[in-house]
Amino acid sequence: MEIQQFEFVPADIEIAAGSTVVFVNLDLAPHTATGEGFDTGALRKGERKEIAFPTAGEFAYLCKFHRHMTGRIVVR
Ligand SMILES: [Cu+2]
User: How far is the CA of 35 from the centre of ligand 1 (A)?
Assistant: First the structure.
């Protein structure tokens, strides 16, 4: 998952349970991907964080610094 121009690209994804999502910030501004049960912490430009999703569910998330940046991860 890339973060660029103050958007998650793609913001909404569907993955299989047990998969991981790698968040990579390509912006100069710091961002987070923060949802119920997970948080990348602040990612600066070029930094990445891998988050595992072991169980099925729907996980909305946002950037704590720019709360209009939102997305949803569906784990099946
Ligand atoms: Cu942000």
Answer: 13
76 CA to centre of ligand 1 in angstroms: 27
Q: How far apart are the first and last CA of the chain?
A: 18
CA of 41 to the centre of ligand 1 (A): 11
CATH number at residue 70: 2.60.40.420
pLDDT average per 10 residues of sequence, the chain (76 residues): 98 98 98 97 98 98 98 98
Please check whether residue 14 is in contact with residue 76, taking contact to mean a CB–CB distance below 8 angstroms: yes
Domain count, the chain: 1
Residue 14 belongs to what domain range?
Answer: 2-75
Nearest residue to 30 (alpha-carbon basis) of 16, 13, 49, 52: 49
